[in-house]
Design goal:
Rossmann fold, Tyrosyl-Transfer RNA Synthetase, 3-stranded parallel β-sheet, two-stranded parallel sheet, 54% helix, globular
Length: 328
C-alpha cells in the first residue's frame, strides 16, 4: 500500500478552503492508502500567536479531523511536536537547503510583503520543516492544495540532492492536487485565496460558522454585472469560485455544475450554493459539538504518535549516520 502524508497548520480557525482543499481529500484517500495526517503545530508559531488561541485551534483541528470523517483506525492522526524527529530532521535539511531556494517561496514572499507581519527565522525555514514532515516517512504522495505545491517541489529537490550525495536516503514524493477546489478564493475578494491569516470575516466561511452566517456570507459574495453563471476565473472570479465550491462539495465536474446552473439568476444560484454548504457543514458541526470536550481527542493523538515515533526515529538515525553525525 502506498504511503501518504499531509497536515494542516491550525494557525487560525479552519475554513471551507481547508475542508475542500485538504481534509475532505484526506477522508477520500484513507481507505486506499496508508495515510498519516498530523496537526502541524510547530508551523503555527512561525508567526506570532497567543498561547490560548493556539491551544484552542489545536483542539479544534483534531476535533474537525474526526468530525469530517477521518477514522483513527484507518488514518494515523498525530500532533507534529509529539514526534521529536520532525524538528531534528528539519534542522538537518535546513543545512542542505540554499537561501536562494527559500527566497523563492511564494508563501514566504507574500507574508513578507505584509508589513504587519513580524518575520521570524521560523517563517523563513518553514519549507525545510515541511520537507522533514514528508521525508521522515518515505511518503509516496502528499495531498495538498495548490498553494503548497511549491513546498512539495522543494522537498523533492532536497531529497534528490541528499540522495545523490549520500545514496538512497529518501523516497521522492509527488504532490496530489485536487482536480476541483485546489484553491478556494475569498468570497469578498475572489482574487485572493480564502485564508486563515487574512482575518477576512466576510470572505471566509469558517467550519464553525452557524448556518445563518454562512448563508449571509454567500448571499453577499462578490460577483459581477455580466449576469451569466459561467466558469471563467479571469472575467468572473466570484461566480467561478462559487461554482467551484458547489462542484467540489457535490462531487461533480465544473462542466456539469456550470450546465446545472446555466441561465439561473445570481440570487437563486447563490441560494443553492448556500444550501449545499450548510448541508455539508451542519452534520460535521454536530459531530464536532459531540466530541470537542472529550478526552478521546487526547487518546487519538497519543495513540497516533506512538504508532509513528519509532519509524520516524529510525529514519532520523539513518540520516544522521549517513551525513556523518554519528560515530561508526
Ligand atoms: N483556500 C484554500 N483552497 C484550497 N486549499 C487550501 N488550503 C489552504 N487554504 C486553501 C490547503 O489546506 C492545506 C492546509 O493548509 P495550511 O492550513 O497548513 O496552510 P496554508 O496553505 O498556509 O493555509 P492558509 O489558510 O492560507 O493559512 P495561513 O493563512 O495561516 O497561511 C494545504 O494543503 C493547503 O494547500
Amino acid at each position: 500500500m502506498k504511503t501518504m502524508i499531509s497536515g494542516i497548520k491550525p494557525s487560525g480557525q479552519l475554513h471551507l478552503g481547508s475542508y475542500i482543499g485538504a481534509i475532505r481529500e484526506f477522508v477520500k484517500y484513507q481507505q486506499d492508502y496508508h495515510i498519516l495526517i498530523f496537526i502541524a503545530n510547530l508551523h503555527c508559531i512561525t508567526l506570532p500567536i497567543e498561547q490560548e488561541e493556539l491551544r484552542e485551534n489545536l483542539r479544534d483541528c483534531i476535533a474537525f479531523y474526526l468530525a469530517c470523517g477521518l477514522d483513527p483506525e484507518q488514518a494515523t492522526l498525530f500532533l507534529q511536536s509529539d514526534v521529536k524527529a520532525h524538528a531534528q530532521l528539519g534542522w538537518i535539511l535546513n543545512c542542505f537547503t540554499y537561501t536562494g531556494e527559500l527566497n523563492r517561496m511564494t508563501q514566504y514572499k507574500d507574508k513578507v510583503k505584509d508589513k504587519n507581519n513580524l518575520i521570524t527565522g521560523g517563517l523563513y525555514t518553514y519549507p525545510t520543516l515541511m520537507a522533514a514532515d514528508i521525508l521522515l516517512y518515505d511518503a509516496d504522495y502528499v495531498p495538498v492544495g495548490e498553494d503548497q505545491k511549491q513546498h512539495v517541489e522543494l522537498t523533492r529537490d532536497i531529497a534528490q540532492r541528499m540522495n545523490n550525495r549520500f545514496g538512497e536516503l529518501f523516497k521522492v514524493p509527488d504532490p496530489l492536487i485536487p482536480k476541483v477546489g485546489a484553491r478556494i478564493m475569498s468570497l469578498s475578494n475572489p482574487e485572493k485565496k480564502m485564508s486563515k491569516s487574512e482575518h477576512d470575516l466576510k470572505g471566509t466561511i469558517y467550519l464553525k460558522d452557524d448556518p445563518a452566517s454562512i448563508r449571509k456570507k454567500i448571499m453577499s459574495a462578490k460577483t459581477d454585472t455580466l449576469g451569466a453563471v459561467h466558469y471563467d476565473p479571469e472575467n468572473q472570479p466570484g461566480i467561478s469560485n462559487l461554482l467551484t465550491i458547489y462542484a467540489a462539495l457535490a462531487d461533480k465536474s465544473l462542466k456539469e455544475t456550470e450546465e446545472q446552473f446555466s441561465g439561473m439568476q445570481y440570487g437563486e444560484f447563490k441560494k443553492q450554493v448556500a444550501d449545499c454548504v450548510v448541508s455539508t457543514l451542519e452534520p460535521i458541526q454536530k459531530r464536532y459539538d459531540a466530541i470537542i470536550h472529550s478526552s478521546y481527542l487526547h487518546d487519538v493523538l497519543q495513540h497516533g504518535a506512538q504508532k509513528v515515533n519509532q519509524r520516524a526515529l529510525d529514519k532520523l538515525n539513518r540520516v544522521q549516520s549517513a551525513v556523518g553525525l554519528a560515530l561508526e
